[in-house]
Structures are given as C-alpha cells and as structure tokens.
Amino acid sequence: MEYALSSAVKKIAATDKPRIGFVQGHGEASPQAMPEVLQAMSVMYQPQPVQLSDSALLSFKTLVIVAPTDTFMPQDLARLDAFLAAGKGVFVALNRVQADLQGGGGTSLNTGLEAWLAQKGVTVNDNFVIDAKCAPITLQQQNGFFTFNQQVAFPYLVLANNFADHPAVKGIEQVIFPFISSLNSSNKAVSPLRP
User: Tell me: the pLDDT tens digits for 68-80?
Assistant: First the structure.
C-alpha cells in the first residue's frame, strides 16, 4: 500500500523524467515486449527505444540492453564505452546460452558483449544455474482417457525471493530467472547489480 501510494505521488509530481534508452538493432527485446517493466519504469522515467548510432545518445541517463541475439560491432562497443565515460549507466541482461528444451541442453550465444563485459571485470559464463529451490512447471499426464496437470519443480527456473533492503527491489516478493548463467566479477569497482 505504501509503495503504491508513494509511486502514484511520484508519478504525478515528476515533471522532468530522465530518459532510459532501450537499445535496439541487435535482436534485443523491444520495450513493448515488456509491458510490466515499462509500466513500472514510467513512474519515474521515460523509457524509449534507441539505436547506439543515435546522435542524442548522451541525452539518456541509462541504456538498457535486454537479450540481444545479433553481434555488436566494434563501433557499437566504442559508443557504449563513451556512454560510460560520460558518467552514464548501462544495464545488460544477456542470454549467454540459448536453451534447447527438446535436446535438453543449450548452445553458446556470442554477441560481442561477452568480451566487452569481461574487459569491465564481469564474466558471464556459458552455463546454466540450477537451483533446488526453483519455480514449478505444469506437465500434462495421460492416464487412460483422463489428462492430469501436475506441478513439477524445474531447476532451470531459479526462484529468488530473499532480497536485501534496497529501494531497487522494494515491494518485489519474488522473481523467476529462467535459464540464467552464472557471473564472475574480478573488479570490485564494477558490480553486476549496481543500481
């Protein structure tokens, strides 16, 4: 209740909202594919699609890169470096492995962001995290003429429900991370969870 009320007040009071750019052009998920994210962000920000070649790139506060599938060219990575050098932020949600449910495995996905992130001290491993405390999936079982739905724990759907006391996760009860990869951070100055 408190979060909903304070969000409504902020939405009404905010007149000059910072722009958040959802990077497009490398097979990323479009902002329209994430309506709940857009709705939550629009309280305090102006989420908009953007190309890295956009001349007004530095007018954005943060760039968001979600699930790219195509290659980032060297000039794209240079633009990201210039964006960071200007004191701006970049949020990357990278699928390092493309899941293959039929084959029961996955294929490494290389976009060029892996090496760029590694230079920044963050290595996204080409593996899957599995967790005993996971989200269930529904399977249908046939028994004669009857079909039954059964909930089965699926360890590739990592369930997070224990969050630190931080404004970035306030009000979130749980998040399901499907087919995530593990991270290694070798640089204390770079945090994969930096707000």
Answer: 999 999 999 999 9
